[in-house]
Amino acid sequence: MKNTKVTLVPLTADDREQFILDNQWAFKYGAMLEFGERDNHIDGDGEIISRKTIERSIDDPKNETYRIVVDGKRVGGVILKIDKETHRNELEILFVSPEKHSCGIGYGAWQAVEALHPETVVWETCTPYFEKRNIHFYVNKCGFYIDEFWCEYYQPEHEMPDDEEHDPDEGPDEMFRFIKVMN
User: Fold this and answer.
1) Which residues pair with 70 in a beta bridge?
2) Percentage with pLDDT > 90 across the chain
3) Alpha-carbon Rg of the chain, whole angstroms?
4) Which superfamily does 7-181 belong to?
5) Helices (H), the chain
6) Is the sign of the CA dihedral 119, 158, 135, 94 positive or negative?
């Protein structure tokens, strides 16, 4: 297993736009590999993850947003939702630039996240069913286990809020939910 040394650098205002574009490209790249150029997973703007969703994650006061940096170059990003009371934290977004896949950067970033928040009792995250690389990464590399599979046959107890902030096209449908209990 490659163990690339990465640094997590807090997102700066002047890097915000590029962070959003890099994030969207990383997610779109995975869908294009699986389904081709256009399919029903890509929204009207041609994105898997909307700008609105990314901006909402960046702007949430409970969240921490970082750039993944290797050798002084920005190669990805991560957004963490930190609950300082329960220590049940969430990995909202983790992406690595597609041209840097399979270099150990994602795993190095995850190790840096765990080191950044050693108080964490449980980590949670989710990924779409078609992201086989992500499923492999979370289960086989990082030690998560699949807790739920959200689909038309199963709706989670903790459904997404049905308000103006929630994009109904980006719900928990056809997603795996992962849990990692820390020791």
Assistant:
1) 73
2) 58
3) 16
4) Gcn5-related N-acetyltransferase (GNAT) (3.40.630.30)
5) 16-35, 51-59, 105-116, 132-136
6) negative
